[in-house]
Amino acid sequence: MSLLRRIEKGGSKGDGEQSQGGGNTNRTPTNRKPTPGGQEGYADLKTRIQNKLLSELDPSLDISRKDEIRRQIQELFNNILAEENIVIAKSERERLFKTIIADILGFGPLEALLSDDTVTEIMVNGPKNVFVERKGRVTLAGVSFDDDDHVMRVIDRIVAPLGRRVDESQPLVDARLPDGSRVNVVIRPIALCGPTITIRKFSKTPYTVQDLINFGSMTAEIAHFLRACVISSLNMVVSGGTGSGKTTLLNVLSSFIPNDERIITVENAAELQLQQEHVVPLESRPANIEGKGAIEIRDLVVNCLRMRPERIVVGECRSGEALDMLQAMNTGHDGSLTTLHANSPRDSVARLEVMCLMAGMDLPTRAIREQIASAVDCIVQQSRLRDGTRKIMEISEVQGMEGEMITMSGIFEFEQTGYEEGRIVGRIRPTGIRPKFIDRIEDAGITLPPTVFGVGRR
Q1: What residues have CB less than 8 Å from 361, skipping those under 6 apart?
Q2: Is 445 exposed, middle or buried (0-12, 13-18, 19+ CB in 10 A)?
Q3: What's the pLDDT score for residue 26?
Q4: CB-based contact 262:308 (threshold 8 Å)
Q5: If 0-12 CB within 10 Å is exposed, 13-18 middle and 19+ buried, where does residue 60 land?
Q6: pLDDT (tens digit per residue) in 302-337
Q7: How far is the C-alpha of 270 from the C-alpha of 181, rounded, in Å?
Q8: 412-434, pLDDT tens digit by residue?
Q9: What pLDDT was estimated at residue 43?
Q10: Residue of higher predicted confidence among 282 and 31
Q11: Domain layout of the chain by residue ranges
């Protein structure tokens, strides 16, 4: 079926405008309609053309064939402008076409921001307030939506392909974009300012360890140490605040896993970009419209133990799945990796304890602490500093139990030496303490020079 409907040769009728002259289509330039001025006029023109385009397009077209559809929309677009006798400058014509294409095939006003590599985060606070983060700084984006319905159309385009929904009965949803970028959506009645979208963009090409060294997030010595920890199958936790770079660091750590090992990843919304060949990604699922069929992170962690994993990577521990993760670490699944929200390594241990209690089992505090002390080998603390940079602030070893307390020792710590031109100056340095798990690293055939831990340095 052709996407172009037959354009009648009779005179076209504009909005509220009656054709005159008994179907005479020969109009003079003085009768041509100029583009309405101002934002409201532009929005009205865009809406009229877009609605007519949608009515002209074949509803059965395959949306995945974007190049072909773009050509067909271009043809329809030109015909509609000619049919309605609209005079428009070339630059405005191109901008209008790009805007309409973004609304029909992409994510509307967000399309330009998503294609901008300098933007790391997009925050939509209702239709008129869109903010972006660039180099750690949050500013207005300079784009907006028409109204709440416009934002909702973009939200539906994001969540529908994932089999998820968002409505008044379920106004919160986590999702992801095709490139893996993380999306969180909150709509009315929860979001009082209107539909709210938060997008954490990921790099089109995953960051490597060398990238993090170049960014100043870690040093070459730290990278060498972390690589040794992963290869020697230590159980590691990456902790930090929101937006501190935990997932990016987890991606880099997982890149050290040997290519011949079977890796099972468990996430709420699939974000990890593992490059190994043998990776099985699992993703949780919310309940359906009847409130049934939900698959929680904890269910996936329990199930992945039956899938012969050599490495288990949990995107984030938030509640009771922490207990199952610790059980896996303590039952032969060494080399597991996960992240959690905490402000320091000591807080990470306390939060793990609380999350284990959230599993609903009446366990004594000492039993939980013994599980943590036995399971977790290393905690890497990642932070987003006030200048917007993201750095590893501390690396600590969990040594064991001493009485009722879990004992820890800092192996590396960040030392700030100054503040110049709005940037924090400093570096992460060794404390001089060699970790107890150094024997496990050496058993894996890796030798770390004493200088990595500050021994022998002047």
Answers
A1: 323
A2: exposed
A3: 43
A4: yes
A5: exposed
A6: 999 899 999 999 999 999 999 999 999 998 889 999
A7: 9
A8: 999 998 888 888 889 899 999 99
A9: 66
A10: 282
A11: 29-105, 110-200, 209-453
Q: Which two tokens stand for residue 163?
A: 């089999």
Residue 203 in tokens = 């790099």
CA 453/CA 433 separation, integer angstroms: 6
Q: What does the alpha-carbon distance between residue 354 and residue 363 come to, in Å, rounded to a whole number?
A: 11
Which residue, among 376, 392, 373, 374, has the nearest Cα to 384 in the 3D structure? 392
The partner residues of 237 in beta bridges, in order of sequence, read 338, 379
- What is the secondary structure of 361-414 as a DSSP string? ----HHHHHHHHHHH--EEEEEEE-TTS-EEEEEEEEEEEEETTEEEEEEEEEE
Give the whole-angstrom CA distance, residue 41 versus residue 77.
18
Q: If you count them, how many residues does the chain have? A: 458
What CATH code would you report for 209-453? Answer: 3.40.50.300
pLDDT digits (tens, 9 = 90+) for 97-135: 887 777 777 888 898 899 898 999 999 999 999 999 998
Sheet containing 378-384: which strands, arranged edge to edge?
279-283, 263-267, 311-314, 337-341, 236-240, 378-384, 390-402, 405-420, 423-430
Please write the tens of the pLDDT for every residue from 41-95: 566 777 777 777 766 666 555 556 667 777 877 877 788 778 777 777 878 888 7
110-200 CATH fold: Beta-Lactamase (3.30.450)
Report the alpha-carbon distance of residue 81 to residue 270 in Å, rounded. 43
Q: Which of 210, 213, 215, 166 is nearest to 191 (CA)?
A: 166
